[in-house]
Amino acid sequence: MLRRHVKTTGWFLYLSIKVRQAMPVFPRISMKPEVTEYLKSVYINKEVLTVVGPEEAERRFQNLLTCLSHPPSYTCVRASTHLAPLEEIHHQLGEELKKICSLSAQEASVHILPHPQVKDVLLLPVDGPRCVQQLSSEVVVGAQCANAVLRGANVFAPGILGSPKYMKVGDVVSVFSDLEGRCTRGATNYQGKKVFVGNGVAKRDRSSIFCPGEPARGVGVQMVDPLYRSPSFDGVLPSLVFLQNLPSVVVGHVLDPHPGERILDMCAAPGGKTCHIAALMGDQGEVVALDKIRSKIAQIQENAQILRLQSIKAFCFDGTKAVSSDSTQTSEGPPFPAESFDRVLLDAPCSGLGQRPNMSITWSLKEICSYQPLQRKLFHTAVRLLKKGGVLVYSTCTITLAENEEQVAWALHTFPRLTLQLQKPHIGAEGMLGAGLSSEQLHLLQRFSPELSWDQTQTTSLPCRADGDTIGFFIAKFMKT
Ligand code: SAM
Fold it and tell me: Whose CA is nearest to atom 19 of ligand 1?
């Protein structure tokens, strides 16, 4: 009897170890306790508590911590409808992805869905988390690289931090994300906190990845069995499809630029939204793109060139200084005289806490809180550069009140000539309670709040799921009266 019990327990243990190995165990986002407390105070603030009650507020906060570490359930691409009709791009993309699938011996059924409300968006459902067996050969990559892998990318050589000692081309390896940023380059057996993101085939020898001098380039590991499967868009129809999060595409439509107008994109690199604005204008008019970091200007120009857009002029310039004190100055570059632009986009530098997937926030609370003053400085310039009757769109990819609804309350108070405008399309949620805005004002704001619709069983159908399960994002639209 005892022997039988031992035998059964043994089997049970063996099976449970096997199952534990095969099932995707995915962590919640990790962060410093001070940051968790801060985010909790944002999500469980007095106004939220009064309206939804403590249980619902807590449920939303817990959902947030889980969904931030997982990728959105759809990959979104913006179609270059200034170059070809959506249906044609849809067809070409399907054919291209089928070709890629057959080359890598994957199942060739590719689902691509046009978004019902955003006329230049194609959505591709993400398959995951999948059950993938971990292997003994481990490649460790930086967190940013791993996040890209979870969204369908291959591992590029510069992202690799550690690999087996004798890794050679063709070896099958498991890829892990270095959660704490502690793996040193060239490690052979990293034992720190890491998370499995899938299996792939090495495309480079270890020696060529870590060779001194020349930095390694190109694909280092091609993902064949990722935890989340979605197509890699590397080199796929580069002028016809542009990988972009759904809320970022919505920003361009909310700005609603028209052919012939002069538009300012104040914080523009790498230029995803700049290019969208130019495309929506049929490349007729002028889109001025500024960014403070010189090396990023080339990215804007490169994207404009790939997407065949000529109305974009990119300058390296500090947006806070972009308004000239000389109202007669007419040079085409910054600084500009006041009231020079029909529309201004302020896609502000922000704490970026809405980015998904993100398994670990390493920032301190001080760093997170440092953005509000900079955003206000930029906002001052944006309002001055906007013509009377012009439109200003303010957006962030973060989830705090301080950088979103509180900025709107501050702006409405500081600039009495600004009024909030209706947004089209409005597919996200409304603004979040907690900054003292009225329900009419909140209604005019658009907040993409993945925690509201997060559901791991994922039973909701499109478009609800695609619209809800996005990165965290915020959009406000103003008019200068
Ligand atoms: N709009 C971009 C897009 O969709 O591709 C993303 C912009 S990103 C959220 C913010 C950008 O602001 C960064 O590229 C950063 O270099 C830039 N930035 C930060 N401070 C700035 C400043 N004072 N003036 C201009 N750009 C700034």
Answer: 349
CATH fourth-level superfamily of 138-226: PUA domain (2.30.130.10)
pLDDT at position 3 is: 38
Instruction: Report how far ligand 1's centroid is from the alpha carbon of 365 (Å).
Output: 21
Catalytic residue IDs: 397
pLDDT confidence tier of residue 110, bands split at 50, 70 and 90: confident
Q: How far is the centre of ligand 1, averaged over its atoms, from the C-alpha of 84 (Å)? A: 29
Which tokens sit at 430? 């409304």
H-helix or E-strand spanning residue 161: strand 160-162
Q: What is the pLDDT of residue 462?
A: 52
Question: Domain segments of the chain: what residues?
Answer: 138-226, 245-480
**C-alpha 132 to ligand 1 mean position (Å):** 38
Segment 389-414 shows an average pLDDT of 98
Range 199-220 average pLDDT: 91
For the chain, report the end-to-end CA distance as a whole number of angstroms: 86
287 C-beta closer than 6 A to ligand 1? no
Please say whether the beta carbons of 192 and 180 come within 8 A: yes
Q: What is the pTM of this model?
A: 0.93
245-480, what's its fold? Rossmann fold (3.40.50)
Residue 138 CA to chain centroid, in angstroms? 27
Q: Is the CB of 125 under 6 A from ligand 1?
A: no
Q: How far apart are CA 133 and CA 360, in angstroms?
A: 24
Q: Which atom of ligand 1 is nearest to the CA of 349?
A: 10
